[in-house]
C-alpha cells in the first residue's frame, strides 16, 4: 500500500467518524420515537427538513444557525406532543392495527410537509452562513470542516444529555418503561399516554437540533427527506431500539463504512451502504448491536 493510499484511508476514517456523529445527531429523535415508544415515525426525516428550513428562516434575520436550533426547540416539542396526541386518539387508542394505519398517517404528514415547504420556499436549495461554515481546521495536509466538528460536539452533547435524562429522572425512567409495561406505570402513578406524549415531544425537539445541523452541514431542499429516511432508520435499528449510546456508535459505524466505500469505489456506491447494513442487521441480529 502506497503512502498516498494510506493518507486517503486515514482521511476517510476521520471524515467517516465526523459524518457518523452527524448521522447520530439527526437520528437521536427517531431513536426515542421509534426505539422507545414503538411509534412508526416515518415522518422523522421530514421533520428534520422542516427544522432545517425554520433554521434558514431565522438565519435570514441574522440569527446564528446553532442559536436558531435552540430557539425552535420548544415549538417543535409542542408540535411533537400535538402530533402524538392526534396519533393516539385516532389510531393507537383504537386497537392493534395502529401500526399499519400509523405508517400511513406519518407518511401523509411527510408528504404534507414536503408540499408546504416546496410551495413556501420553492424547489431550490437553501443554505445558511456562519463563521464555522466554509472554514476548515488544518491538521497537516488534512482539512477538517468546522461544520463537521460542530456536528460531533452537538451529537455527543445530545447523547450525554438524553442518557442522563432517561436514566436519572423519574420521567426519563418512565419513558424507558412505557413501551415495555404501560400498566405497571399506572401502579407507580405515571400516566402512560401523557408519558408517551411528553417523550414524543422530546424526540421532536431533538429532531429540531438535528435539523439545524442538517442545514449547517449541507444545503437543503424540500425532498431531502428521501436521502435521510434510510440512513436514520439504519442507525436506529443498527444501534438497537432505544439505545442512546448505541445510536452514536451506530452513526459512526455507518459514517465510516460510507466513507470507506466512497474512497474505494466512488460516490455512486455510498448511498447503498445504509440499506445494505439495514438488511444485514435485520437478517442476522434484529435486536441491533446494543439491543437486548
From TrEMBL:
InterPro entries given in the database record: ABC_transp_permease, BCAA_transport_permease
Molecular function per GO: transmembrane transporter activity
Location in the cell: Cell membrane
BP GO annotations: amino acid transport
Residue intervals passing through the bilayer: 12-36, 42-59, 66-87, 99-123, 144-166, 198-220, 232-254, 260-284
GO CC, one annotated term: plasma membrane
Record-linked Pfam families: BPD_transp_2
KW Cell division (keyword) present: no
Superkingdom: Bacteria
Membrane topology: Multi-pass membrane protein
Keywords: Amino-acid transport, Cell membrane, Membrane, Plasmid, Transmembrane, Transmembrane helix, Transport
Similarity field: Belongs to the binding-protein-dependent transport system permease family. LivHM subfamily.
Name by which UniProt lists this protein: Branched-chain amino acid ABC transporter permease component
Organism listed in the record: Rhizobium johnstonii (strain DSM 114642 / LMG 32736 / 3841)
Gene: livM
Amino acid at each position: 500500500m502506497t503512502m498516498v493510499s494510506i493518507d486517503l484511508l486515514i482521511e476517510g476514517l476521520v471524515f467517516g467518524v465526523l459524518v457518523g456523529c452527524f448521522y447520530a445527531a439527526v437520528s437521536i429523535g427517531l431513536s426515542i420515537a421509534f426505539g422507545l415508544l414503538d411509534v412508526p415515525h416515518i415522518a422523522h426525516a421530514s421533520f428534520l427538513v422542516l427544522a432545517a428550513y425554520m433554521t434558514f428562516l431565522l438565519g435570514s434575520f441574522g440569527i446564528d444557525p446553532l442559536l436558531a436550533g435552540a430557539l425552535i426547540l420548544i415549538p417543535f416539542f409542542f408540535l411533537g406532543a400535538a402530533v402524538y396526541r392526534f396519533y393516539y386518539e385516532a389510531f393507537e387508542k383504537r386497537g392493534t392495527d395502529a401500526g399499519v394505519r400509523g405508517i400511513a398517517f406519518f407518511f401523509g404528514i411527510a408528504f404534507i410537509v414536503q408540499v408546504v415547504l416546496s410551495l413556501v420556499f420553492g424547489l431550490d436549495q437553501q443554505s445558511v452562513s456562519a463563521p464555522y461554515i466554509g472554514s476548515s481546521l488544518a491538521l497537516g495536509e488534512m482539512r477538517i470542516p468546522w461544520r463537521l466538528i460542530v456536528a460531533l460536539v452537538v451529537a455527543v452533547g445530545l447523547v450525554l444529555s438524553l442518557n442522563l435524562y432517561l436514566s436519572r429522572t423519574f420521567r426519563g425512567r418512565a419513558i424507558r418503561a412505557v413501551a415495555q409495561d404501560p400498566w405497571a406505570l399506572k401502579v407507580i402513578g405515571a400516566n402512560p399516554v401523557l408519558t408517551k406524549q411528553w417523550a414524543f415531544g422530546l424526540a421532536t425537539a431533538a429532531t429540531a437540533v438535528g435539523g439545524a445541523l442538517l442545514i449547517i452541514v449541507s444545503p437543503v431542499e424540500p425532498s431531502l427527506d428521501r436521502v435521510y429516511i434510510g440512513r436514520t432508520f439504519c442507525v436506529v435499528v443498527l444501534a438497537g431500539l432505544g439505545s442512546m449510546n448505541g445510536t452514536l456508535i451506530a452513526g459512526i459505524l455507518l459514517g465510516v463504512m460510507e466513507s470507506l466505500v466512497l474512497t474505494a469505489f466512488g460516490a455512486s456506491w455510498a448511498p447503498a451502504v445504509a440499506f445494505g447494513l439495514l438488511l444485514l442487521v435485520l437478517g442476522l441480529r434484529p435486536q441491533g448491536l446494543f439491543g437486548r
